[in-house]
User: Which sequence fits this backbone?
């Protein structure tokens, strides 16, 4: 029973599990209540300005949840790549090899490695956005 809900985050629609959407909504309501309570305790004078809630509130929980969802999507997309694509990414990012070193392993030039990595980036980029 994996019900997903579409939420709007930073102006983009994102599909998240219903439990995550419920948690984010509860967190938003808690923050809203805290802002109201804080506003009651702040004194305003002509020299003070209190920024609106949306200007000063960070959303670390939402950011962390969405980052984890993006990483999960990226892992799934990498798992769907062919073995050569997975190996190429592994050598470049886990092995921290240069494009020249990868080219020597595969017997191709640095430019060919660059083009293959670019294609992989484009393919993976669509899966995490």
Assistant:
């Amino acid at each position: 029973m994996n019900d997903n809900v579409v939420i709007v985050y930073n102006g983009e629609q994102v599909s998240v599990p219903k439990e995550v959407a419920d948690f984010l909504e509860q967190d938003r309501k808690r923050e809203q209540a805290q802002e109201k309570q804080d506003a009651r305790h702040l004194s305003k004078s002509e020299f003070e300005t209190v920024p609106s809630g949306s200007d000063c509130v960070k959303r670390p929980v939402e950011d962390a949840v969405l980052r984890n969802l993006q990483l999960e999507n990226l892992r799934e997309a990498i798992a769907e790549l062919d073995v050569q694509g997975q190996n190429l990414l592994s050598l470049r990012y886990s092995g921290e090899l240069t494009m020249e070193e990868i080219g020597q392993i595969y017997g191709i030039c640095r430019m060919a490695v660059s083009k293959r990595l670019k294609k992989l980036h484009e393919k993976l980029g669509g899966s995490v956005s």
In short: The longest helix spans residues 18-41. The first strand starts at residue 4 and ends at 9. The chain has a mean pLDDT of 81. The radius of gyration is 22 Å.
